[in-house]
Write a structure and sequence with these properties.
Layout lengths: L3 H14 L23 H12 L5 H10 L2 H7 L7 H10 L2 H17 L12 E11 L9 E5 L5 E12 L6 E7 L6 H16 L5 E4 L6 H9 L3 E6 L4 H11 L8 E8 L2 E10 L13 E11 L5 E10 L8 H10 L2 H13 L11 H25 L3 H4 L3 H14 L2 H5 L11
Parallel strand pairs: 1-5, 5-6
Antiparallel strand pairs: 1-3, 2-3, 3-4, 6-10, 7-8, 8-9, 9-10
Helix pairs in contact: 1-14, 2-3, 2-12, 3-5, 5-12, 6-12
């Protein structure tokens, strides 16, 4: 249970940050007749609070509202009752692009507070990666739900998005979530997703990293045309450039590389070595290509003694001297923060795949955007506003539990000491 001091601090942070998200700008598309609730904003605010407090579904959000103290409900302008079905209906009626604008405002808020400065890297780096969530419900006219058939003949649809994560920031902030139309794939929508990212957060990064799914000359040219740099993964599915990377880097020995040290994770010893080469510069007229990288990871199981070796190749438009070997290694490892920090948190703790709140694709997408806003608020509090290293290492689950407890037990006396927390300025 959160102490009065922690309760006041957590509630105070949410009270201060949530009004700056501009929820009042969301369009209310409901029919004016028969409205039980005058505005959709309290419902959206409640769902967002439920997410930061660890609620896994709309029924839990309804129970969460019942558990809230009267002081908390007054502070956040929430009604005494709001059913899960009402929240679902309101969520389905929200405009997706307007919700994405709320996500963008959460990023702008963090940027204004100087919370997105590069940490351990000389410049901003954004990692982009695709994500798919399956559902057995869909609308045949939905352009964002891609229909599939399983081996047993049953049908399902995939809701696919591209996540953009600022991996150079301490909180690994989610900058954008771009939907992938059913008619295309990650490569086909990269230009649109990257251009949208530039319009809202282009000043925050210099380098964009992507898996091999977006490794294409047209995408490289687009990145360079906007005065940015790329780092693309190269896999065997792209045999021409993959073989060229292996030819230049594959035979180099450990003595010719940069030893990055060892670490033990899960009973396994990881040894990493990095090689860089400028021999591929200008290869096959690939736009801006200046350097190829090979990261070798040797994994030794300390129990069985088994040893496996993995070699990962990448290409970039930055020169070999743009960073130290340690800097390059940091970029390569942090690329996976979009998976380890973003996707893993949404799956493992928020259970986005198992409990998406709404099974219809359009509702899933809207809940996903709110979940990313909640993730940014949690990450900001944990990684930026906390002063000690121990506090910044607080597990996500514990932080969510503390927020739930704070919103449940906050009293007027706690919120008024040492000075009253002002009520929300918006609806």
């Amino acid at each position: 249970m959160a102490t009065p001091r922690v309760t006041r601090r957590l509630v105070g942070v949410l009270r201060k940050r949530i009004p700056k998200l501009g929820l009042g700008a969301l369009t209310d598309t409901r029919d004016h007749r028969g409205r039980r609730h005058a505005s959709i904003v309290p419902a959206v605010r409640l769902m967002l609070l439920g997410m930061v407090a660890g609620c896994k579904g709309l029924s839990e959000v309804e129970n969460f509202l019942d558990d809230m103290s009267a002081a908390t409900r007054r502070l956040f302008g929430l009604p005494q009752k709001l059913s899960d079905t009402t929240c679902r209906d309101m969520l389905l009626r929200l405009e997706l692009d307007e919700l994405r604008a709320v996500l963008h405002r959460s990023v702008a808020m963090m940027d204004k507070a100087k919370a997105l400065a590069p940490d351990g890297l000389p410049f901003g780096v954004v990692s982009m990666d695709g994500r798919s969530t399956a559902t057995n419900l869909w609308d045949q006219n939905d352009p964002l739900a891609q229909l599939h058939h399983s081996a047993n003949g049953s049908a399902y649809s995939l809701v696919r998005t591209i996540t953009s994560c600022l991996v150079s920031s301490p909180a690994r902030t989610c900058l954008d979530m771009h939907p992938i139309p059913a008619s295309t794939n990650e490569n086909g929508v990269f230009a649109e997703a990257f251009t949208a990212l530039l319009s809202t957060a282009g000043h925050l990064f210099r380098l964009v990293t992507y898996d091999s799914g977006a490794n294409a000359a047209a995408n490289a040219a687009l990145v360079l045309a906007h005065a940015k740099h790329y780092l693309f993964r190269v896999k065997a599915e792209q045999p021409t450039i993959f073989d060229e990377c292996k030819r230049c880097l594959g035979r180099l020995t450990v003595a010719n590389g940069h030893a990055l040290g060892t670490e033990i994770l899960g009973g396994k010893l990881y040894t990493r070595t990095l090689w860089l080469s400028s021999k591929l510069a200008g290869w096959n007229d690939y736009p801006g290509l200046k350097c190829a990288l090979r990261l070798q990871v040797t994994i030794e199981d300390k129990v069985t003694g088994d040893v496996t070796v993995e070699n990962r190749y990448s290409i970039t438009s930055l020169s070999e001297t743009a960073m130290s070997a340690r800097g390059w290694a940091t970029v390569l490892r942090r690329h996976w923060a979009v998976e380890n920090n973003c996707h893993n948190t949404w799956d493992r703790l928020m259970q986005e795949d198992k409990r998406p709140w709404v099974r219809l694709p359009r509702g899933m997408l809207r809940a996903m955007v709110l979940r990313r806003v909640a993730y940014n608020l949690l990450g900001w509090f944990r990684s930026v506003t906390q002063r000690s290293e121990q506090a910044r290492a607080t597990p996500w689950k514990r932080l969510m539990d503390l927020i739930y407890s704070a919103l449940e037990h906050a009293t007027a006396e706690i919120l008024a000491h040492p000075r009253p927390l002002e009520p929300l300025a918006c609806i």
